[in-house]
Amino acid sequence: MKLGTGKLVIDNGQLVDGRGGTPILNGRLHVEDGKITFSGPAEKSPPFPTGATHINANGGTIMPGLVEAHFHPTYFNVAAIEDLDIKYPVEYVTLLAACNARLALECGYTAARSGGSLFNIDVWLKRAIEEDLVLGPRLAASGREICGVGGLMDWNPDYRRIGMEGLVLLINGPDEARSAVRKLVKDGVEWVKTYPTGDAAAPDANDHHTLCMTFEEMHAVVAMAHNHKLKVTGHCRATEGIKNALRAGYDAIEHGTFMDEEALDLLLTRDVPVVPALYFEYASVARGPEFGMPQSVVDGHQETLEGGAESARRILKAGGRLGMGGDYGFAWNPHGDYARELEFFVNYVGFTPLQTITCATKTGAEILGRDAEIGTLEPGKLADILIVDGNVVENISLLKDRKNFIAVLQGGVIKAGELASRSPAIV
Ligand SMILES: [Zn+2]
Which residues contact 408 (CB under 8 A, 6 or more apart)? Predict the structure, then answer.
């Protein structure tokens, strides 16, 4: 991704640098050739460089670009889980993924970690974004997801003869687990997404308290993935599934729903980040019935919502790390709604806006493994910046509406927001 050239000053706004400290009321940023050179109070800033471009934040908020830590660019407003593997061919899903990537950037998300991809689209989407062919977040790519045979993601009965090869790699035992990871190594993914547990979506055989992989399979995945410098994460709701993942050496936990004391201890000891993705549960309860969701599934999502919210509060209080990501791409939880996750954590879970923003910026960058480059507004980092018209610390809901965005920058280049509509980065 090309960096901006020349000098840029952003001022006249409250500076929220992503590290969680008190916002600087009259903040200023200096950027040179796409990287931040000064971040702090206006009165301490160097003089305005001659010839610099100037962005007036209009008394609003200057903050790091958001990080969507559980992004599915290839999901497309799925109404029934079966839609995922048979609704569209790979050609159309690829185009949808490019549209979703652009939408995420327009929504202020300058980076994203994928939570699983149909086919091998993420890897190529990432390349197209990096080569400035399409707009989108800096992406950490996942691939097809790994699940045990008969587990959550293996829903098509054999008589249908549907291979599901675009969605998931189904495994039986550690040898097949290793074989699946080797396929993903060849595909070029960075994150291996697995299904250690079930979900409320499958109440009959794979509900949210069911295990879908054995510890031995999970351990085999981690050993092979780490050998090839890939990271591993997993859909972990059931308590034993969370513990299996932590003991197997997972690099992140998706959801981390039902955590007991032992699970929390394991998590904190290893300092593994968790991405709860809770608004999805809320949206499933609130809007699922209008899409024909059975009551048993709605009830399971309610239990998941309450368990997940309680675990998130305990993790934060104990000093653990949480990323903000939302499993967007379902009919009741569509792409574009990403910042509802942040609003939900403030209004429902009880985080402060600053805590939530830190999770959605600094911790998100850590999950991507790119915290040396992005996630906070500090000298030396890439100028991935979101400038919002209004006080986000007082009203986190401003982030939901991209009409409030003065500018979204990546590497010092204005890519979206009101200023981009005057000089679009890609026409
Ligand atoms: Zn997901």
Answer: 65, 105, 106, 108, 110, 385, 386, 387, 414, 415, 416, 417, 420
Distance (angstroms) between ligand 1 centre and the Cα of 116 equals: 7
Q: What is the DSSP letter of 390?
A: S
- One-letter amino acid at 249 equals G
Find the 72 Cα to ligand 1 centroid distance in Å: 7
Q: Contact at 8 Å (CB) between 396 and 361?
A: no
b/e 295-326 (16+ beta carbons within 10 angstroms → b): eebbebbebbbebbbebbebbbeeebbbbbbb
Closest CA to 208 of 200, 216, 217: 200
Q: CATH for 66-368?
A: 3.20.20.140
Ligand 1: distance of its center to the CA of 115 in Å? 5
In the chain, CATH 2.30.40.10 sits at 7-65+375-421
pLDDT at 257 (0 to 100): 98
Q: What pLDDT shows up at residue 165?
A: 84
Contact between residue 7 and residue 38 where contact means Cβ atoms under 8 Å apart? no
User: Start-end ranges of CATH 3.20.20.140 in the chain?
Assistant: 66-368
pLDDT digits (tens, 9 = 90+) for 129-164: 999 999 999 999 999 999 999 999 999 889 988 878
CATH of domain 7-65+375-421: 2.30.40.10
Tell me the pLDDT tens digit for each residue of 341-390.
Answer: 999 999 999 999 999 999 999 999 999 999 999 999 999 999 999 999 99
Spacing, Cα 266 to ligand 1 middle (Å): 23
pTM (predicted TM-score):
0.96
Spell out, as residue ranges, where the chain has pLDDT lower than 50: 426-427
